[in-house]
C-alpha cells in the first residue's frame, strides 16, 4: 500500500519538514521516510512513532526530496521507479530541468528552498514549478510546506538568490546571536544573562519587524537617540563593514547555489 507522502533523506532539513508537518496535524501513518543511514533511521523511528522509516523509496503519491544536492538525481530515479508521479525537491541549486531529466518521463517537479525555522513552524519557503508542473502541483507543494511556515511563489531563476537570503539566512542570524551574546560577556554579563538578552532581542525585533507598518530603517531610527548609545554602537558596525559583509555573504551563497546546480 502506498503512503501519501514519502520523504527521501531524513537529515536536518528533512527532519525539520517531517517534525513541522506532524506538529501541524499530519497523521504519522500518511508519511514515510527513506533514509540510507541506519543510525539515522533508528533516531527517526524513535522520535516519530507511526511514521514508516525505510532504507529506500517505497510507493508514494508524492515525494519530497531532501538529500544533499549531489544525491538528488539518484533519489529522483529511485522515487520514480517506486511509483511517484509528483516530486518536490528542497535541494540547493538542483534545477527542475535536471530533475525532469533524471525522472525521464512526465513526472511533475516542483523545486523549493525552505529554511530550518520550519522546525518551529516559522519557516519561509519559496517554490517554483518545473516545465510540466501545473497549478495542482504547486498547490500540493504549498499544502506540504505551509504546514511549516510561509510559502511564496517565485520564478525558478530567483531560487539561487532565495537560497542566499533565506535558505542560508538562519545561519547568519545565529552568528549574530552568538556575537551579541559574546559581546555581552565581554561587557561583564554572565553567559546565561547575555544569552537571554541577545536571543530575546532577536525574537522581539523580528516580531516587531513583521508586525509593524514601519520598515527596518524607521524601526532602527526609533532606537537611535541623537548623540546616544545606539548611534555610537552603529558607527562601529558601519566602520567594521557589517552591511557590506551581509551583501557579500548573500552573493557568495547565491553563487555557491549556482555552482551546486552546474556540478
Ligand atoms: N540544512 C538547511 O538549512 C537547508 C538544507 N536544504 C537542502 O536540504 C538538503 C538536505 O540538507 P541537510 O538536511 O542539511 O543535509 P543532511 O546531510 O543533514 O541530510 C541529508 C540526509 O539524506 C540522507 N541521504 C543521502 N542520500 C540518500 C538517499 N539516496 N536516500 C535516502 N537518504 C539519503 C543522508 O543520510 C542524510 O541523513 C540539501 O539538498 C540542502 O541543499 C535546503 C534548505 C535549508
Ligand atoms: O548550506 C547549504 O548548502 C544548505 C542550503 C541552504 C541552507 N543550507
From TrEMBL:
Positions bound to NADP(+) = 66-69
Q: Which residues form the Pyrroline-5-carboxylate reductase catalytic N-terminal domain?
A: 7-92
* Keywords linked to the UniProt accession: Amino-acid biosynthesis, Cytoplasm, NADP, Oxidoreductase, Proline biosynthesis
Stored InterPro entries? 6-PGluconate_DH-like_C_sf, NAD(P)-bd_dom_sf, P5C_Rdtase_cat_N, P5CR_dimer, Pyrroline-COOH_reductase
Give the superkingdom in one word: Bacteria
Reactions listed under catalytic activity: L-proline + NADP(+) = (S)-1-pyrroline-5-carboxylate + NADPH + 2 H(+); L-proline + NAD(+) = (S)-1-pyrroline-5-carboxylate + NADH + 2 H(+)
Q: Name one Pfam family in it.
A: F420_oxidored
**Could you tell me which residue ranges the Pyrroline-5-carboxylate reductase dimerisation domain spans?**
156-260
Role, per record: Catalyzes the reduction of 1-pyrroline-5-carboxylate (PCA) to L-proline.
NCBIfam families in the record:
proC
Q: Name the PANTHER family for this protein.
A: PYRROLINE-5-CARBOXYLATE REDUCTASE (PTHR11645), PYRROLINE-5-CARBOXYLATE REDUCTASE 3 (PTHR11645:SF0)
Q: What is this protein called?
A: Pyrroline-5-carboxylate reductase
Q: Which organism is it from?
A: Solirubrobacter pauli
